[in-house]
Amino acid sequence: MIVRFLGTHNAESSNTRLVSFLIDDVLAVDAGSLASELSFPEQEKIKAILLSHGHYDHIRGIPAFAFNNSHHATKVFATQQTLEILCSHLIDGVIYPKFSESTSFLGKPALELLTLEPLKAEDIEGYRVLAIPVNHGVDAVGFEITSKDGKKIFYTGDTGPGLLSLWEHVSPHLLIADVTFPNRFENVAKDARHLCPALLNRELIEFRRVKGYLPRVILIHLSPKFEEEIRGEAQEIATELGLSIGIACEGEKLII
Ligand SMILES: [Zn+2]
Ligand SMILES: [Zn+2]
User: From the CA of 175, how far away is ligand 2's center (Å)?
Assistant: First the structure.
């Protein structure tokens, strides 16, 4: 399984992109930078898109992707509320076409919207995908994605603390975790329902207690202005826990 990071931050600039990554070039997870970071032929290869929740930074690439790939239907999987946010705010027929419907301009639908039920595993393009609710204020899920050869990743999506009940359902080799803030903003992170390294540390201690091991960890959704601070604090918890914690970078590929 190859994970290719397109966007790994919570803020967009000339050198930071909003969250999106690919699995083996065919499955996209979140769409913050789905169109802007891929060539047209690379976009054509994508068979399905998973959306963790309806916040702008995770769905904003969908209209541009649909516009570019309107000659065939791409499947978009998300919870009902996330699909409703997408349809009512981005592909609403006002600011851009309703890409999930047939239109005289586009012909057939460019997107096939499919509802994911939390905790009900789905086979999506040969991957087992399990959506699990997380703590983020809006309807939000993380995804465990299992390849045919049994490699597993778990992506938390945007989440605050309180993941204990979630760990019983997953056994990832790689954990891709939201860490948006440094430790001095722990209370801000809790209020905004994100993690900082100290909050992640507590979640990982619980993970180890429940599962008996710790996965490789990669941090995503970093606030660019705090990135160096987060990097230092992540190294401290990696040393304390005796595991590898990396920071996801735009353009980086990981082999699991
Ligand atoms: Zn969010
Ligand atoms: Zn976000």
Answer: 17
User: How much of the chain exceeds pLDDT 70, in percent?
Assistant: 100
Q: How far is the CA of 136 from the centre of ligand 1 (A)?
A: 7
Q: Considering every ligand atom, which ligand is closest to the CA of 32?
A: 2
Contact (Cβ atoms closer than 8 angstroms) between residue 251 and residue 10 = no
Tokens of residue 36, six digits: 């802007």
* C-alpha torsion sign, points 23, 28, 33, 38: positive
> What are 77-95's pLDDT values in tens digits?
999 999 999 999 999 999 9
Question: 49 phi and psi, to 5 degrees?
Answer: -125, 130
Residue range 133-152, pLDDT digits in tens: 999 999 999 999 999 999 99
Which residues fall inside 5 Å of ion ligand 1, going by CB?
A: 55, 158
pTM: 0.97
Strand order in the sheet with 253-255: 111-115, 74-78, 48-50, 27-29, 20-23, 2-7, 253-255
Q: How far is the CA of 25 from the centre of ligand 2 (A)?
A: 22
